[in-house]
Amino acid sequence: MNIHPLSKRNGITLTLVGGMALIAGIILFLQNKDNFAIGLVFFSVGMIVTILGAAKQLEPNTTLTLNGEGLRYFHRRGEVWLDWSNIQRIDIPNVHHNGQWITLPYVGLKVKSINAVLDVISPRLATGLLTEQRPLLMTASAQDEDIATLETYLGAEFTPLEVNNERYRGVLAMFGHRSLMLNKYLGYHLFIPFDSLDREGEAFVQLLKEYRTKV
């Protein structure tokens, strides 16, 4: 089964709207100096929307494939495979903040062995995911009242990682440390953003659980 993200469908629309706003801004610049401020607004907004639209179009047409053995996650920087047998828990993560529970816009995957992920993920994809995980990193940091402990843990990302008698260095070690830290504070090692899905988060979680139970 292939999953085609709903967000991909907005890429062409955003690009067209952004392009029209850019043209409108240029026309306003050229028509009259009194229209400079309005033209600048159109041009700036058009530039941002065009970049967003172009970025969406660069995303893979298929973000996930599911079969009886596992799932494959596709990213513009690469892909990674997960066996159902290595997935311990699938759900939508929630965090406690200012006295209330907040649902994060991700599907969380808790794995039994992070080694199986580190052994197949490419350094290029690991780097991309580390960058995109900054919001999750900030959310995780808010869960620990002891800032000094968290700072020490984050500092460890730049050191080699040894898990189950396997040693990792460089970007793979950083990604491994990050995954273990996110699991400690958020309850999951890996996260699939909602904008990569073709349905509501809860419906997708149920779909993954149905596939996993068939193993």
Description:
With 215 residues, the protein is α+β, with helices and mostly antiparallel strands. 49% of the residues lie in helices and 21% in strands. It contains 8 helices and 11 strands. The strands form 4 sheets. It has a 4-stranded antiparallel sheet with strand order 1-2-3-4, with helices on one face. α4 (123-132) packs parallel to α7 (170-186). The protein is globular, with a radius of gyration of 21 Å. The mean pLDDT is 83.
Structural class by secondary-structure content: alpha+beta
Mean pLDDT: 83
Query: From the structure provided, what is the oligomeric state, counting identical versus distinct chains?
Result: single chain
User: Shape from CA axes?
Assistant: globular
Q: In percent terms, what proportion of residues is strand?
A: 15-25%
Distance between the termini: 15 Å
Identify low-pLDDT runs: none
N to C succession of SSEs: EHHEEEEEEEHHHHEEHEH
The helical percent reads 40-55%
Report the count of strand segments: 11
* Strand line-up of the largest beta sheet: 1-2-3-4
Write out key terms for the chains shown.
11 strands; four-stranded antiparallel β-sheet; 8 helices; 215 residues; alpha+beta; three-stranded antiparallel β-sheet
